Amino acid sequence: SEKAALEDLLFSYKGILYPAALCNLETFRVLDSFEARSDDMILAGYAKNGTNWLHQVLNDLEITAAKYTKEEINERMNITNELFVFLCPEFGDPEKFKRMKELPFRRIIVTHLFPQVLPKSIFKSKAKILLLVRNPKDTAVSYFHFHNNMPTLPSFSSWDEYFAAFMHGKICRGSYFDYLVEWNKHVDDENVMVITYEELKENQIIGLKKIADFFGFSLNEEEIQTVAEKSSFEAMKENSFKTHGTFGKILFRKGIVGDWKDHFYEAQSKEMDRKFEECLEETKLGEKMKY
Ligand code: A3P
């Protein structure tokens, strides 16, 4: 069936677009009342940077380090599935926040939000923030397919039309470039660590060890290896109906580095390189993300 127009599907708040079916002014107001804890694990990443992947990684690291019993793992899974700890405006539900307050374990909070829109308590609490970034070209491609497959998002009739929208932030969740510029202001914060999708794909074991160290988990080689196997693209895709329902079919697409080469024209690639330079030249984040 025909999808509705962009303006019907997206809601603009402080210059950034969000899915209108899921959020409004009230959810943004409520969002600010969220109370972070100092031991929260915050996973921040723009849409399509691999947030679902890292969410599973953090969850598995936590479960393994805490040495939960099977029953405790199941109980924890039921609660987290129900409360769905994604901290985005569409989940600005006061009831949910109240229940999250009482959770009897270390919380994992995933968010696509720009830092200036995050609840103030997150920075005040000094909770650790893992910032997940991805080459903008691959993020753009992944998000193109996502826009066109998700019924709640506007679709684009061509790659070119989408590319222009992505470059100007006229897509759900705003400009990825602005997002990077804003987060770059926090890369030197003592509670922030940056990880790239590419470095994790290149060597997941080293990546997982870095993440485990950052959040203070001590796991042995074998445990790290098990977490890595469980969170490989293939394993997650295979298990996706159980973890994500039918949404899993849309989410686990290719899981590779460099798919942009099959989508970008030469001129588009150059345009994005220029934009990236303009936004992040001589910054730590820009250096880390060099692709
Ligand atoms: P592609 O569309 O390029 O395949 P998010 O979870 O933030 O929405 O990101 C989705 C992207 O992460 C998709 O990229 C998806 O395939 C990829 N992804 C999901 N799980 C992954 C995994 N275990 N390893 C590598 N990539 C993964």
UniProtKB/TrEMBL annotation:
<dbReference type="InterPro" id="IPR027417">
    <property type="entry name" value="P-loop_NTPase"/>
</dbReference>
<feature type="domain" description="Sulfotransferase">
    <location>
        <begin position="39"/>
        <end position="283"/>
    </location>
</feature>
<dbReference type="InterPro" id="IPR000863">
    <property type="entry name" value="Sulfotransferase_dom"/>
</dbReference>
<comment type="similarity">
    <text>Belongs to the sulfotransferase 1 family.</text>
</comment>
<dbReference type="Pfam" id="PF00685">
    <property type="entry name" value="Sulfotransfer_1"/>
</dbReference>
<keyword id="KW-0808">Transferase</keyword>
<dbReference type="GO" id="GO:0008146">
    <property type="term" value="F:sulfotransferase activity"/>
</dbReference>
<protein>
    <recommendedName>
        <fullName>Sulfotransferase</fullName>
        <ecNumber>2.8.2.-</ecNumber>
    </recommendedName>
</protein>
